[in-house]
Amino acid sequence: MQGVKPGINLPLHYQGEIIGVIGITGEPEHLIAYGELLKMSAEMIVEQANSLELVQWQNRQQEAFILQLIKGDHRDMTHLQSWATRLNIDLNTPRVVAVIQVQDDNAQTTANSLLKQVLNLLETPSRGNLIAMSSMTELVILKPAFLDGKQWSANLESQRIDQLLKRLPSEMSAKLNIALGHYFPQPTDIHRSYQTAKETLRFGMQMHPEQSKYLFEDYALLVM
């Protein structure tokens, strides 16, 4: 055929289906080995991209699920339970809410970037935390409540927060305020824990702005 050059065409496969083709110009007998390597590399790139997209989708779904939980709209528990099952989340795990807020005079994008760095630290290792960004300046953490495996201990949680603050660079931790809410035994009351964390943060920052950590137990009467 006029204008056609010699070469090879290699189909790209993903999950048992042909999704594309790689065409290489040149003498076919010299291109087979090189073409197979190129085909393998292309298929790996496609697989990695799809895996990354799946992880991002799961993260978005988990974040939406957490935000639904702290809103307290639990009228359709069947749907909520089904959603949790798909995300491999046990709704019956005792949890307490902590709120991290950025106090920065800079643009919100800077605050958002700082929170993402904190989120990465909290996810490595995750220790069973469920984490979501509830705003450009606020991070919500649903923490397992029984750190010793038996009962709720605000002191143990306070120590865990101190460990987190020590992991952060000093210039970063200086811009963060962390509040720990009250533990409620019923899983459907997780929104109450969130509310107490928010109120603890509000009163703590008003009364002790020089501090960065606030516990519900220290402001219980005010919060209630």
Summarize the structure.
The chain is an alpha+beta fold and 224 residues long. It is built from seven helices and seven strands, in the order ββααβαββααβαβα.
Essential attributes:
alpha+beta, five-stranded mixed beta sheet, 7 strands, 49% helix
Q: Strands of the largest sheet, in order across it?
A: 4-5-3-6-7
Q: Low-confidence stretches at least 5 residues in length (pLDDT < 50)? A: none
Largest sheet features? 5 strands, mixed
Chain-averaged pLDDT: 85
Helix content: 40-55%
Distance between the termini: 84 Å
Element-level helix/strand string:
EEHHEHEEHHEHEH
The radius of gyration computed from the alpha-carbon positions, rounded to a whole number of angstroms, is 25 Å
- Beta content comes to 15-25%
Task: Tally the beta strands.
Answer: 7
Total of DSSP H or I helical runs spanning 4+ residues: 7
Find the structural class using helix and strand composition: alpha+beta
What general outline do the C-alpha atoms trace? elongated
Description:
The protein has 224 residues and is α+β, with helices and mostly antiparallel strands. Helices cover 49% and strands 21% of the residues. Strand 4 (130-135) and strand 5 (138-144) form a beta hairpin. The protein is elongated, with a radius of gyration of 25 Å. The mean pLDDT is 85.
